[in-house]
Design brief:
28 helices; 2 domains; MFS_trans_sf; mainly alpha; transmembrane helix; Drug:h+ antiporter; membrane
Length: 605
């Protein structure tokens, strides 16, 4: 029973006004938090045939440059760290990069909701360019890590959000796959770009050129979105966006609350503090006996429940809202991405280093072709998965199949990535992994987006990618921990009779040094054997982890992919009520009712 004072307030005019004001305040805050969603829905009323083609072409251009970045810059990193004699820091930088990428996604998604999709792209563009300028001019590994903090903020998540805004469920998987098509082209083109850059200009220009290319690629998309948003506003299709009242300070604070900045800082700091010791312990004084290593982990673990409590009690717009934690599709997709990325980065982090040292008969171009084989396979089979989803209007069992194939691919790698693995085995294992990953990734994204209303699409997309990227950071940290703790001992065991401690340290710190020794020398043979044994351990751990996503996929709901923006609201892309069915069960009911109506006269007769 409610307290008497509350009942009295509710029965008085004063109490009713208070309730009204509270409701109005909540509505106002929701308007502020979802202004970007309302704007993008309004653009569907001004986009016509040619303007929508302009949107998708500009989105494709953005996707192309993002692809070119993704297929080239990662390759320069191992040479950048080697040039600075810090090759073993590769995993540490990878952990930092993935956590910034992960934590940047919710912020960018929130910005796109609070302001607009166009302003979010503009924010990404500014940070992207600044980050690459810093990396290109970096004198130390620390400066490279600093540049990564700026550039790794969220172009991928914005592309995914725009595709979700502009496509119905039945088309979304296919369009998402087609937007990855540039990876097929760049999978071959990037190899020549990488080699040409490294031979003629150096790795710094490999990063720096994107400070020029990215603005040229993204500005057309930003201008298209700005045009559509302004035209929709001019024509009265976009409702007026309310602004939080108060002083400038209160408005800034309201914006910070809407972005859930403190929640993201808490989560990012906690995960980084837990993971970094795995990659730093081998280089720290006294290793795991160093009190600083233990303190970082303890503080990180303590911060996790603090983050959860903050999300539950204090955050007005949490990055992990409780409704997501009750949604099996969201939790399933996030869990699948989390464990799949742990497994993937266990296999990926030191693969290029392994190939560079072991496959001495491969030219740099061929090494790059190999590295991009899995990306190409991911793209081709991602498009295939999207087409199958368009035909069948379902995704669950396609996802289960893909994850099973993914596991098989990791198992094949255990053999293929040994010192005795053949070239054909290496390539085939990459293709198998790409087939399974292409099917699983598209299905997870569509399944999660289908399970929430449009106002949650940006947040849920960022949430799933956040958890997935955290998995990638954990996988990279584990790989780095295994590598830094086992590789020095392996090199010492196999090279001890043939090289002194200074030479062994040089081989461990720089892959170019390892590759200088002749193939028939005992030093080179020892290096290859050490790489072989450590890589096998990484792959066995990856295979064990790859089993978990299969079980999670069986828990996913199997939504019908129809002509709506999602599977829980009966709404079109413009936010209007749809005259179509959300699920084919409704179609089956109508069909049965029609059949009963046909036979009913016969029964009466």
């Amino acid at each position: 029973m409610a307290p008497a004072s509350d009942i009295e307030k509710a029965s008085s005019g004063h109490g009713l006004h208070e309730v009204d004001r509270a409701t109005t305040h909540t509505d106002d805050m929701n308007d502020i938090a979802h202004a970007g969603v309302k704007r993008v829905e309004a653009t569907h009323k001004v986009f016509k045939k040619y303007s929508k083609w302009a949107l998708f072409i500009s989105l494709g251009l953005s996707a192309y440059v993002y692809s070119l970045d993704g297929t080239t810059t990662w390759y320069y990193l191992m040479f950048a760290t080697s040039e600075l004699d810090k090759h073993s820091y590769l995993a540490t930088i990878g952990v930092v990069q993935m956590m910034i990428v992960a934590c940047g996604k919710p912020i960018i998604a929130k910005i796109s909701d609070v302001t607009s999709r166009a302003y979010a792209f503009l924010t990404v563009l500014i940070f992207y360019c600044l980050g690459y300028v810093i990396i290109a001019s970096a004198p130390t590994v620390d400066a490279i890590a600093g540049g990564i903090i700026f550039y790794a903020v969220g172009l991928q998540v914005l592309n995914s959000i725009i595709i979700a805004d502009m496509t119905t469920l039945k088309w979304r998987g296919l369009i998402s796959g087609l937007m990855s098509l540039p990876f097929v082209v760049n999978g071959f083109v990037s190899a020549n770009i990488q080699v040409g850059i490294l031979e003629r200009s150096g790795w710094r220009w490999g990063y720096g050129m994107f400070a020029i290319l990215v603005p040229c690629a993204i500005l057309p998309l930003i201008l298209t979105l700005v045009w559509a948003e302004r035209k929709a506003k001019t024509l009265g299709h976009a409702p007026p966006v309310k602004v939080k009242e108060g002083t400038l300070g209160s408005r800034v604070w309201g914006f910070i609350e809407a972005l859930d900045v403190f929640g993201i800082i808490l989560l990012g700091a906690a995960v980084i503090l837990i993971l970094l010791p795995m990659t730093l312990s081998a280089r720290a004084l006294n290793g795991w006996g160093n009190g600083g290593m233990i303190a970082m982990i303890v503080i990180g673990v303590v911060m996790l429940p603090v983050f959860a409590f903050y999300q539950w009690k204090f955050s007005k717009y949490p990055i992990m809202p409780s409704r997501f934690l009750k949604n099996p599709a969201v939790i399933g997709a996030a869990g699948i991405g989390f464990f799949d990325f742990i497994s993937f980065y266990l296999t990926f982090t030191y693969t290029s280093s392994f190939i560079f040292v072991v496959k001495v008969d491969w030219s740099p171009v061929n090494q790059s072709y190999f590295a991009n084989t899995q990306t190409i396979a991911l793209t081709v089979f991602g498009i295939t998965a999207g087409f199958i989803m368009f035909l069948t209007r379902r995704y669950k069992w396609l996802q289960v199949f893909g994850l099973c194939v993914r596991l098989i691919g990791v198992g094949v790698m255990i053999r293929s990535r040994g010192a005795q693995g053949t070239d054909a085995e290496l390539v085939i294992s990459q293709i198998i992994q790409g087939l399974g990953g292409g099917f699983a990734a598209v299905c997870s994204q569509v399944g999660a987006q289908a399970s929430v209303p449009h106002v949650d699409v940006a947040t849920v997309t960022a949430f799933v990618l956040l958890i997935t990227e955290i998995g990638g950071a954990i996988g990279t940290a584990i790989a780095g921990g295994i590598w830094t703790n086992l590789m020095p001992g392996k090199l010492e065991a196999y090279l001890g009779p043939h090289a002194n401690s200074t030479e062994i340290a040089g081989i461990y710190g720089n892959i170019r040094t390892a590759a200088l020794y002749p193939l028939d020398s005992p030093v080179r043979a020892g290096v290859i054997q050490a790489y072989d044994e450590v890589m096998k351990i990484l792959l066995i751990v990856a295979a064990v982890v790859a089993v978990i996503p299969i079980f999670l996929s069986l828990w996913m709901p199997n939504y019908y992919l129809g002509d709506t923006q999602n599977a829980v609201e009966k709404k079109t892309l413009s936010g209007e009520t749809a005259s179509i069915d959300l699920d084919e069960t409704h179609v089956d009911e109508k069909r049965r009712a029609s059949e009963e109506a046909k036979v009913q006269p016969e029964v009466r007769a």
